[in-house]
Amino acid sequence: MISWTQQDGNTLHDVTGIRHTRPDGSLVFPPFSAEDFRQGVHDAVYRCVATNIVGSIISREVHVKAVVQRRYKVLVYDEFVVRGNTAVLRCQVPAFVHDYITYMWKRGDGASITSTASRGGRYSVLQTGQLYIRAVTQADGQTSYSCQTRHRLTGEITVSASAGRLFVTEPHGNSSPKIIDFRQIVSANEGESLEMACAATAYPPPTYRWYREEEGRLVLLTSNHRITQLDGSLILQFVSVQDSGRYICVVNNTAGEDRSFTLLTVSAPLAVYITP
């Protein structure tokens, strides 16, 4: 027998027209209008319970978060960068839409920008919308950059209301690295590929190294058939649960050092085997 419980452990009951359990045990949420949205139903945590005469097994938590379509603006602001460093352009969107969109970037001449880090290129488009341009030159400041978002559920494309420009400055003396962009937490599903990145400003242009924390020690990561490192970007191919852990980006030059910490969590599909 299959049943469902809420986060507090109470057995789930059907809500007419909003939520019901089918005879085969599937939990169903029919299409609904914005007026029918219910926080406790459409933005809630559920668990599945499978029971037979021998006993019961409970699934992991299932997080349901329904989307009510809302209009939003996309903005790109100007950024300053010291020549030779990594520029970071940010695609600004409201928090309520973060989890449901993918990002695309274009130059002022209409050319699309795609991630090329895995091939040794200068561009990275991160899942969170940032555009990294490595080893910036004055030529990178001669064009503008615009962002587009695509809603995963509705397919709607929204173009940034503004285009940003890079103001490339010349260095004035040595400066120690200061990390200006990184992610504290990164999540992925088993089998996916991902890019973790950090960017710093410094002169001379800094060197980046990635480490993984293992039993309290920092282990230097080296590039191989599954791992690629390029100026602050760490690309992992076909991740597994064993890749979960704490990663450290260390940035240094002759003037000093800075570092950032990223926690990677890799999830695997739940597999349940029930025998009579």
TrEMBL record:
The keyword Cytoplasm does not apply. It comes from the Eukaryota. One of its GO terms (biological process) is cell development. Pfam families: ig, Ig_3. Residues 84-160, 177-262 form the Ig-like domain. Gene3D superfamilies: Immunoglobulins (2.60.40.10). Keywords: Immunoglobulin domain. This is Down syndrome cell adhesion molecule.
